[in-house]
Amino acid sequence: MLIASITTAIATGILAVFTGFYVFFTYRLMKETRRMVDEMTRPDVAIYFKNEKPEKTQSIYFKICFCIKNVGTHTVRKVRFEGDLAFKPQDKAIGDIRWVKNGIEVLLPSEMHSDSIYVATIPKQHSEFYDISDSKANIKVIYEDIFRGKQCFDQQLNLHEIDVYKQ
């Protein structure tokens, strides 16, 4: 009877240790799964310049688009812009674009807003006469995520990173 009690106590102790390991690893797995689901369901907003129509002409102007896109998987609400909205590459300032000025109430997944801006190009052999600081803008995007509340990010946009002849 004593051996049976000792065996039962040892088996119970081993079972308790394995149950503790099981609980610990289940908790870690649940935490990682929750983090992965959180990452997969997060809206992700991107702003950028892109060349609208590549044209190999002798013109000193080219057309670019200022774009915002929700590249995430959930809806973004109440998108607002702050920062260098007076940035004016050529014909109009970023702040003059209707959806930048008024904001965007709802930005669905994969939805994109864009507007064209004309920009003067400077040939590379004359680039030393061009003030590079005029070609950068720091834009802050503020939006609401339905799960996480108010979110924001800063991004520096640079006209010199655009390939004029590539779309």
Could you walk me through the main structural features you see in this protein, from its secondary elements to its overall organization?
By secondary structure, the protein is α+β, with helices and mostly antiparallel strands. 26% of the residues lie in helices and 35% in strands. The chain contains two helices and seven strands, in the order H-E-E-E-H-E-E-E-E. A four-stranded antiparallel β-sheet has the order 4-3-6-7. Strands 1-2-5 form a three-stranded antiparallel β-sheet, with no helix packed on it. The N and C termini lie far apart (84 Å). Residues 124-133 have low confidence and may be disordered.
**What would you report as the Rg, rounded to the nearest angstrom?**
27 Å
Mean pLDDT: 78
Annotation field: number of helices: 2
Query: Low-confidence parts lasting 5 or more residues at pLDDT below 50?
Result: 124-133
Helix content: 25-40%
Distance N terminus to C terminus?
Answer: 84 Å
